[in-house]
Amino acid sequence: MYKSTLNLLDTEIAIKFIKDTFERDLAKALKLTRVSAPLFVQPETGLNDNLNGFERAVRFDVLTLKKEVEIVQSLAKWKRMALAKYGFEPETGLYTDMNAIRRDEDLDAIHSVYVDQWDWEKIITKNDRKLSYLKKTVKSIYKALKKLSVAVNKKYPALTHDLPDEITFISTKELEQLYPELSRKERENAITKKHRAVFIYQIGWNLSDGAPHDGRAADYDDWKLNGDLLLWYDVLGIALEISSMGIRVDEKSLVRQLKKKGELDKLHNPYCQGILNGELPLTIGGGIGQSRLCMFFLNKAHIGEVQASVWSEENIEENAKKGIHLL
Q1: How far is residue 19's CA from residue 114's CA, in Å, rounded to a whole number?
Q2: What DSSP string describes 270-283?
Q3: What is the pTM of this model?
Q4: Would you say 218 and 261 are in contact if contact means Cβ atoms under 8 Å apart?
Q5: SS3 254
Q6: What is the full DSSP assignment across 69-122?
Q7: Catalytic residue (choose from 174, 241, 251, 263)
Q8: Angle value at C-alpha 112, between 106 and 113, nearest 5 degrees
Q9: Does residue 318 have an active-site annotation?
Q10: Nearest to 204 by CA among 242, 251, 172, 181
C-alpha cells in the first residue's frame, strides 16, 4: 500500500521549499524578473490561450464594465505583450505565477481543475529562432531541475530521484519512426522510461499518419520550434510532463499555422496584429507546472496531495483506501 514519505504538515513545508528553490534558480538561469500577471482578460483582445482549441474558458461578467471576461488558460500571449510594454532587452525576460481553472479537464492522478505553474518568457533575436537555441534553453531548465533534486535530497534524505546527467532530445517524427506501432502516449512512456528525462520537440504539424503528435494552439508556439519536457515517474510508472515550451511564432509561422487550423480570422485581433506589424518582440517561453514539480520531487502518488482542488466523494474515498489523502 502507498505511504507518503512526508506527513501533511511536512509536505506543506516541503512544497514551499521546492517552489522557492526552483523559482530562484530558474530566474537566475534564464535571466528572468518576476512580475505580476492577470487572472482574467477580455476575450476580444485575443490574449487568452486556446490550448488545444477545444477547452472552454471560464467566463463571468464584470458589473461596472458591462462586459464578460475570461479566466486565463495560460499567459503565453500576455507575456509577449508585457515584454514589449515593460521594455525588456534581448536575452532577458519575465516570469510569473499563473493560476487557472480547466473546467473540461479529465481528472486523474496528474490532472486537476486547478492549474498552477510558472509562466516565463524572454526576448530573443531573429538569429535565435532555431532548434539549437531551444535545446540550449531546455538544458538550462534541466540543470535547474537537477540542482533542485540535490537540494531536496539534502533536506529530506528519504526523497531520492534518478535523474540522468543529460536530457535526451527527440523529435516527434523520430519518435514515430522509433515506435510506429505505439500510440502517442505509449511512445512518450517508452522513450522516457528508457532515458528518464526527455524533451520531445516539434509538436503540432501532422506526422506520417496524418495527425499531429499532440494538439497545439496555432498562434503562440512555432510548431517547428517547440516541445514538452518529460521525466520518468516511478511512483506512477508514467512519463510526467513537467513543462511545455517553445520559440513563439513570427509573422510567417503565425499565418501558416492559422491557415492549417482554419483560423485566419484571428489575424484581426490585437495580439496577432502586433506580431504581423512587428510591434511584439520575438520571444521564447513556456510554463512549468508547480504542483507537478512538487509531486515529482516529493514522490507523491496524486496531484491532490500537493494542491487544494475539488474531487468527487467517490474519488476521495477510493484514494483514501490506497493511503492517498487529498488536500
Answers
A1: 17
A2: HHHHHHHTT-SPPE
A3: 0.92
A4: yes
A5: helix
A6: EEE-S--HHHHHHHHHHHTPPTT-EEEEEEEEE-TT---BTTB-SEEEEEEEEE
A7: 241
A8: 85
A9: no
A10: 172
Residue 276, CB half-sphere, CA atoms under 13 Å: how many?
14
What are 217's three cell numbers? 494552439
Residue type present at position 56: R
State the Cα–Cα distance between residues 157 and 303, nearest whole angstrom: 22
Q: What are 213-257's pLDDT values in tens digits?
A: 998 989 989 999 999 999 999 999 999 999 999 999 999 999 999
| pLDDT tens, residue by residue, 247-278 | 999 999 999 999 999 999 999 988 899 999 99
What are the residues whose beta carbons fall under 8 Å from the beta carbon of 43, sequence distance 6 or more? 57, 59, 68, 69, 70
User: What ranges make up the beta strands (E) of the chain?
Assistant: 32-34, 40-41, 59-62, 67-71, 93-101, 114-123, 168-171, 197-201, 221-233, 238-248, 283-289
Catalytic residue among 228, 243, 248, 292: 228
Total residues belonging to the chain: 327
Single out the catalytic residue among 73, 117, 243, 257. 117
312 is catalytic: no
What is the three-class DSSP state of 36? coil
Catalytic residue, from 23, 25, 73, 102: name it.
102
285 CB contacts (<8 Å, ≥6 apart)? 76, 79, 80, 93, 119, 120, 121, 122, 245, 246, 248
34 in catalytic set: no
3-state secondary structure of 225: strand
Which residue among the candidates 23, 49, 116, 221 is catalytic per the annotation? Answer: 49
Q: How far apart are CA 156 and CA 134, in angstroms?
A: 33
CB-side neighbour CA atoms (13 Å) of 185: 3
Tell me, yes or no, if 244 is annotated catalytic: yes
Q: Is 116 a catalytic residue?
A: no
The residue annotated as part of the active site, out of 73, 74, 202, 244, is 244
Question: Is position 184 annotated as part of the catalytic site?
Answer: no
